[in-house]
């Protein structure tokens, strides 16, 4: 399921600032902007749910917001309290979709003491963090509005889930939506006018300094208005090239899905992933391609049972009026080993939403143009394909590993550019749609914040005499059966990622991801995966990655 998220256009103001102060963990305060008996003040009784023990609907809503504030506050340093003015109000919500929330910086600032770049706009919270002073005392830092209408059942995709445990079922978990929207207010947004390409007041913002258009090879702060206007709709060619995010991308993103046409040798085609079906692998699923046919016009959409012989083959079907999962069931029931769905409109290959745990074959999508190419090749004889992933390239990044930004054509107000692209896999917090599986993980967003300056200034508490070299020490005990200690030395402050992997290189559990000062750190692994499930005995890797380098060692988990 993917449901649109939107953020508000910020109010604009310029200001000067005083010298920066020392940075500490940020305090984020939720300012309740709701009236009597509404939103956060709704007195309707509620039973506890998913770790949220609020006794009223309003209190449960506020608990979720405070939980999100605590997550961001623990990750980001600032001596200036960050105020989030929040309210629940009616928003667009019908059978076709719902606007879940909107947020943005209330004021923006430039040319203050402590700014990393002169003549550059910063959202209020980040500007305060860099300057060490509140640059707009009369205003909160972020304004956020969330859709109260969702609880009325106006959207068939579900109502708000107020638990804190990620077990939203068929509903929409509020926590990742709050993390997402507050993320916009913290700096995940540009202030460029996308319709005209004009800079705000003639000055770039810190976000636009890291937007790179691969077609023209320019960052947005170096472009003309016309170039920025064209870049905003240059789908698949606009990337975020901040170094911290690019460094972290291989640790978080999976390999890029692709369809390889081996005979005739057409090479690899770009594809869209499905949110259901078997996982794609580097080895892939190979077989002869066949165009599926069903018993009702139009005969190639797979909306009814397939009538031609497709067993043991990779089936090609057209996108149509029925769900993607129904097509996949039709192909699987007929014995197909994989399914390719060709889009029915111009544009890139779509991502395929839906959920059906009974589907066990891999499912992908291709563009309308590539679907036509495949059908034409079938007219000339057998076509053999492999459905799988690229060996090295990342899902949602360009060939240089830089993460793609959302640049649809035409521009989507409140979504274009100020989000990661929808091709990221696994789905990321700052995509323009809320996706199943998101909960309290801020994934690449923290690295993005490192790029724009949240984590660059000195952090208090750096221990004296930091280690002289990056070192990942031996796990102890090793082998182990219940718990082992992982210790490492950081010679310099920066983003740090420590994870446990199986021997195929798949992530088992992310032990730590975030900013750390120089020093020696100790973590533990209890032999479970990210969901708390016990892993089978065997050999595992633990890998440390920082801007200074990467190190990995082996450990043995006993029964």
Description:
With 559 residues, this protein is α+β, with helices and mostly antiparallel strands. The protein folds into 3 domains: 2-249 and 397-452, no CATH class; 255-389, Glucose Oxidase, domain 1, CATH 3.50.30; 471-557, Immunoglobulin-like. Helix content is 16%, strand content 27%. It is built from 8 helices and 31 strands. It has helices at 57-75, 124-131, 174-186, 225-231, 243-252, 324-333, 368-379, 445-452; strands at residues 2-4, 28-32, 82-89, 93-94, 97-98, 101-105, 108-109, 122-123, 142-147, 160-161, 172-173, 211-213, 218-219, 238-240, 255-263, 267-270, 272-273, 285-291, 314-318, 338-342, 363-366, 384-394, 403-404, 433-435, 471-472, 484-490, 494-501, 507-516, 519-525, 538-546, 549-557. The strands form 9 sheets. Strands 16-15-22-18-19-20-21-17 form an 8-stranded mixed beta sheet, with helices on both faces. Strand 4 (93-94) and strand 5 form a beta hairpin. Helix 1 packs across helix 3. The radius of gyration is 25 Å and the shape is globular. Mean pLDDT is 89; it is low at 1-23 and 457-464.
């Amino acid at each position: 399921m993917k449901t649109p998220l939107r953020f508000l256009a910020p109010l604009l103001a310029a200001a000067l600032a005083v010298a920066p102060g020392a940075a500490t963990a940020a305090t984020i305060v939720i300012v309740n902007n709701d009236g009597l008996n509404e939103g956060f003040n709704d007195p309707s009784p509620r039973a506890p749910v998913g770790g949220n023990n609020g006794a009223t609907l309003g209190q449960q809503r506020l608990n979720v917001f405070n939980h999100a504030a605590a997550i961001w506050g623990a990750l980001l340093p600032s001596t200036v309290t960050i105020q989030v003015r929040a309210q629940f109000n009616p928003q667009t919500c019908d059978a076709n979709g719902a606007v879940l929330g909107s947020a943005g910086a209330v004021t923006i600032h430039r040319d203050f003491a402590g700014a990393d770049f002169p003549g550059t706009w910063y959202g209020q919270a980040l500007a305060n963090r860099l300057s060490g002073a509140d640059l707009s005392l009369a205003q909160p830092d972020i304004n956020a509005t969330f859709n109260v209408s969702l609880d009325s059942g106006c959207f068939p995709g579900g109502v708000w889930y107020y638990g804190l445990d990620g077990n939203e079922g068929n509903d929409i978990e509020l926590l990742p939506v709050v993390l997402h929207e507050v993320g916009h207010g913290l700096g995940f947004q540009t202030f460029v006018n996308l319709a005209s390409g004009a800079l705000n007041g003639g000055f770039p913002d810190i976000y636009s300094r890291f937007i790179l258009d691969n077609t023209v090879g320019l960052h947005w702060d170096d472009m003309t208005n016309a170039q920025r206007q064209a870049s905003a709709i240059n789908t698949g060619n606009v990337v975020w090239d901040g170094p911290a995010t690019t460094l972290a991308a291989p640790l978080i993103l999976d390999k890029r899905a692709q369809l390889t046409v081996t005979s005739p040798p057409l090479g690899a085609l770009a594809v869209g992933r499905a949110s259901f079906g078997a996982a794609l692998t580097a080895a892939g699923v190979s077989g002869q391609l066949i165009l599926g046919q069903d018993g009702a016009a139009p005969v190639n959409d797979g909306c009814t049972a397939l009538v031609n012989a497709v067993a043991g083959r990779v089936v090609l079907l057209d996108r149509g009026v029925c769900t993607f999962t129904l097509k996949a069931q039709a192909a699987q029931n007929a014995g197909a080993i994989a399914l390719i769905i060709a889009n029915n409109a111009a544009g890139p290959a779509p991502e395929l939403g839906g959920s059906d745990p009974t589907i066990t074959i891999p499912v992908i999508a291709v563009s309308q143009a590539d679907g036509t190419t495949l059908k034409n090749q079938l007219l000339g004889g057998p076509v053999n394909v492999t459905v799988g992933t690229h060996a090295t390239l990342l899902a949602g990044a360009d060939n240089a590993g830089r993460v793609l930004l959302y640049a649809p054509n035409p521009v989507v107000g409140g979504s274009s550019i100020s989000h990661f692209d929808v091709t990221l896999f696994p789905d990321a917090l700052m995509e323009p749609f809320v996706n199943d599986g998101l909960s309290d993980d801020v994934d690449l967003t923290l690295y993005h914040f490192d790029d724009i300056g949240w984590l660059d200034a000195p952090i208090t508490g750096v221990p004296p005499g930091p280690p002289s070299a990056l070192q990942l020490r031996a796990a102890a005990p090793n082998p182990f059966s219940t718990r082992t200690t992982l210790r490492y030395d950081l010679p310099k402050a920066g983003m740090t990622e420590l994870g446990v992997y199986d021997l195929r290189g798949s992530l088992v559990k992310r032990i730590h991801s975030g900013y750390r000062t120089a020093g020696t750190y100790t973590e533990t692994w209890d032999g479970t995966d990210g969901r708390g499930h016990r892993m089978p005995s065997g050999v595992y890797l633990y890998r440390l990655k920082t801007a200074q380098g990467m190190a990995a060692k082996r450990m043995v988990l006993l029964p």
